[in-house]
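Appendix C: a fully annotated inverse folding record. The material below is reproduced so that readers can follow the format used throughout the book. The structure is listed first as tokens, followed by the designed sequence.
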């Protein structure tokens, strides 16, 4: 009888330990490897080095664009070899927190603390007449702290911002203001730091509503269609979702700054796996900001406070 009880105690202890490991990200509950396929990046301010990278974008040639806390935009090949780089015009007030590849092949840069979206050719040549915004304020076409920009199938641009107005503004391909929605708050349709966006093949706008710890989905006119997520650490919950990505295969990847992990969901918000946990070893993350897919469907995770990128299949 004592042996049976001992076995029972050990089994329950093992079960709860396994659950704890899953919750903290030590065990991947979605089938991905716990170790990255590739890890690259080194802390520093010299060419090719990184200082808390905050945004990532990948172009059709699998060139990887990063912007870090020094205000540098640097470009690497798919395996992390440095190719070229340049600086944003000024970064005294702060640095960009987003990057987007437009359908034209140009790079869109939400210049967060200068209330505008900068536009560059892939070689770093600025396209000054395409700059969007530049005036701080709550009015149409004015911006607070810009976090991200996304493009729909018609070439319209959606810009998210926080500060005086936690909102999303929509612009025509020519940069003309069309409409806005949101507002600061916790009610559905409102935002508390909408940190990133992505747009699906039906032109629905998916928003990582970071400080509300949720995902909100809207149509192209700002009508709320769906929402999911709540604050927490267990699978299915979110804690400061900073990055969001659709893989085109029915999955949503959410990069959680607060939980130091990437979580994989179905389109209706069911968690089907997590990758990462807090730490500095390969497969561990420290305040990740963003994720991007390359042409082979590999997930590139911006491991910001570890000053590196980790590539995984997940």
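Designed amino acids, in order:
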């Amino acid at each position: 009888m004592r042996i049976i009880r001992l076995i029972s105690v050990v089994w329950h202890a093992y079960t709860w330990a396994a659950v704890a490991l899953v919750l903290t990200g030590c065990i991947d509950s979605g089938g991905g490897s716990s170790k990255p396929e590739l890890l690259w990046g080194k802390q520093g301010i010299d060419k090719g080095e990184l200082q808390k990278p905050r945004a990532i974008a990948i172009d059709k040639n699998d060139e990887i664009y990063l912007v870090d806390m020094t205000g540098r935009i640097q470009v690497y090949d798919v395996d992390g070899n440095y190719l070229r780089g340049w600086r944003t015009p000024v970064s005294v007030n702060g640095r960009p927190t987003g990057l987007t590849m437009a359908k034209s092949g140009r790079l869109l840069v939400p210049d967060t603390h200068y209330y505008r979206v900068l536009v560059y050719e892939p070689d770093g040549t600025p396209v000054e007449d395409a700059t969007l915004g530049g005036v701080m304020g709550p009015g149409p076409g004015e911006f607070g702290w810009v976090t991200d920009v996304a493009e729909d199938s018609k070439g319209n641009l959606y810009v998210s911002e926080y500060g005086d107005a936690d909102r999303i503004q929509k612009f025509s391909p020519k940069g003309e203001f069309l409409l806005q929605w949101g507002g600061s708050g916790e009610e559905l349709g409102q935002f508390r730091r909408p940190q990133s966006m992505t747009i699906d093949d039906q032109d629905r706008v998916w928003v990582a509503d970071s400080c509300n710890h949720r995902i909100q989905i809207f149509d192209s006119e700002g009508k709320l269609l769906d929402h999911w997520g709540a604050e927490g650490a267990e699978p299915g919950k979110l804690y400061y979702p900073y990055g969001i990505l659709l893989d085109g295969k029915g999955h949503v990847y959410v990069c959680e700054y607060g939980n130091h992990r990437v979580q994989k969901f179905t389109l209706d918000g069911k968690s089907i796996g997590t990758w990462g946990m807090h730490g500095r070893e390969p497969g561990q993350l420290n305040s990740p900001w963003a994720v991007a897919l390359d042409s082979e469907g590999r997930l590139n995770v911006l491991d910001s406070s570890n000053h590196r990128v980790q590539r995984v299949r997940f």
